[in-house]
Amino acid sequence: QVELVESGGGSVQAGGSLRLSCVASGHADRGIYMAWFRWAPGSEREGVAAISPDGLKIYYGDSVKGRFIISRDNAKNTAYLQMNSLSPEDTGIYYCAADKKYGIPLGQQGYNAWGQGTQVTVSS
What we know:
Structural class: mainly beta
Oligomer: single chain
Shape: globular
Radius of gyration: 13 Å
Number of strands: 11
């Protein structure tokens, strides 16, 4: 069972940056997909970015392409989400997901582990 803990959320003004971290524990050393999703009130949870176990395949949601960067450090079982040029539309709870069993990388279904979420608030 993989367990995930996110950190790095907070409040920032529009145009600013934040970096989120997600540490995986449990059976995380066998190579797992890791991803970030976000949810805002009134919206469905959205796939933000995903990265393959070897880091060679990376996927981004259309709304964050060119602004967000996902990366991972397998030695630390940690995934990161560098968020730049933030706008109020990026406000929401960001969830780390891992251990994809089936489905597309940015699809919610198929991920076996989810973190508790970290709040990101961007003010104008």
